[in-house]
Design brief:
This protein has about 425 residues and is an all-alpha fold. It is built from 20 helices and no strands. About 5% of the residues have low confidence.
Length: about 425
């Protein structure tokens, strides 16, 4: 997203102002500037390395600052890392301000809770297990602030409906941040020990190992993404009239899934399902995909095998999960008139009902060699007309609401001019109502 909406800018500015207010009571004479500077530098180095390699955030140093420093000083630890971080999209300033202000407020809250519960005295005296309770409360406060701020930004940007902006954020962040919090507590205890900051840095070694393990997972996932891209490109080359169709169906499937309140992991699976729904065309003879004129009944039956071909192709890709069912059943219809198995109603997997609506919508709003693109409003009206017969009304309603809020701006658009020669056979494989 290259542009930042005005209300998102206002939200970021409000968070930044609140951060400044938290920093104002910084006592010049009682601030451990040496520890603050070292932690801020270490945070900047770790953040740069982690963001560049994984795109994530490294919390142990931030939480160590919350356990060691007073609130106003602890809030300064992430500021240099956020303001100096590289930004891939413009405008850079609000993005950098957000990266500095959000963790600063979270660390301030964690330090405030930790100090109120006597945590700094427990850390200084290496008082276990009494040091664990204040640290746990501080980690919870840290997660709560991150969740509140993240959800607010998602609502301001318009990524999800406001009522669902905070759903699942706390549950997903609590476990990993708790692990980082334990590492931060160990850093703080060693920092206060006779061995000093050098010993505290040793805590980062096991964290580096865990990030290395994560890197292997990241590379494996990148390989999966590359495989998916290669399959889609192969389909686009073989059946050029659908070029870009797969990505757009994936985008529309994501809109529907988010509107239905699905969690991020399932939304990603639905994106894969939309992108790969036509991969079975690789098993259909090219002469049929490119045939001008009507298809014979036998040729139509061959083309209608492409969902089964696709399901066989992706059967061994375990991370696709329920996307495989969507690939197999995305041409089923609610009234049982679809293919390949003529399933009806709830017997059609939910993911397939989502992709079916996304597929039909893009088929109607894209210029094809046998028809010109319909306006979005006309396509929506046709989907609503066929809801309950061909398509699940719940999925149609979700797409309509998502389009009303964010419009239809797919990353890939169909700009092929319509040809004069009709290709009636293509309608057999189109997701549009017939």
């Amino acid at each position: 997203m290259d542009a930042v909406p005005a209300r998102a800018r206002g939200y970021v500015a409000a968070v930044a102002l609140l951060t400044v207010l938290c920093l104002l009571p910084l006592p010049a004479g009682h601030t451990p500037w040496g520890a603050l500077g070292l932690l801020a530098a270490l945070c900047a180095v770790c953040e740069h390395a982690v963001r560049r390699r994984f795109g994530g955030t490294f919390y142990p140093v931030l939480l160590a600052g919350a356990f060691l420093l007073p609130p106003a000083a602890a809030a300064l630890v992430p500021v240099p890392a956020g303001l100096l971080s590289p930004v891939a999209h413009r405008p850079a300033l609000p993005r950098r301000v957000w990266r500095a202000a959000q963790p600063a407020l979270a660390v301030w809250a964690a330090s405030r809770v930790h100090g109120t519960l006597g945590g700094r005295d427990a850390v200084a005296g290496s008082d276990f297990p009494h040091a664990l309770l204040p640290a746990g409360a501080a980690v919870l406060a840290f997660c709560l602030v991150l969740t509140v701020l993240d959800g607010g930004l998602r609502a301001a940007v318009g990524l999800v409906p406001p009522r669902r902006a905070w759903r699942g954020l706390l549950a997903r962040s609590l476990a990993p941040v708790a692990v980082h919090g334990l590492a931060g507590l160990m850093m703080a205890v060693l920092w206060r020990s006779p061995y000093g900051p050098v010993a505290a840095l040793l805590v980062l070694l096991p964290m580096c190992v865990s990030w290395w393990v994560f890197a292997q997972y990241h590379r494996e996932r990148a390989a999966h993404q590359a495989t998916i891209r290669a399959l889609v490109q192969a389909v686009d080359i073989k059946d050029g009239y659908t070029r870009g169709h797969s990505e757009r169906v994936g985008h529309a499937s994501v809109l529907i899934a988010r509107e239905l309140g699905m969690d991020d992991e399932r939304v990603e699976v639905l994106r894969f399902a939309g992108i790969l729904h036509d991969v079975g065309k690789l098993g259909v003879p090219t002469r049929l995909l490119r045939k001008n004129g009507p298809l014979t009944p036998e040729e139509r039956r061959i083309i209608e095998l492409h969902p089964e071909y696709g399901h066989e192709m992706v059967r061994g890709i375990s991370f696709l999960g329920e996307a495989r069912a969507a690939i197999l059943h995305h041409h089923e219809r609610l009234d049982g008139s679809g293919y390949p198995y003529g399933l009806a109603g709830d017997r059609i997997p939910e993911c397939a009902r989502i992709v079916a609506v996304a597929d039909a919508f893009d088929a109607m709003t894209s210029t094809r060699c046998y028809s010109r693109a319909r306006p979005v409003e006309a396509a929506v009206a046709e989907l609503e007309r066929c809801a309950g017969k061909h398509f699940d009304p719940r999925m149609v309603g979700a797409l309509v609401r998502a389009l009303a809020r964010s419009g239809w701006h797919p990353a890939v658009t169909a700009d092929e001019p319509a040809q004069d020669t009709p290709t009636a056979g293509r309608a057999a494989d189109s997701g549009a109502p017939r």
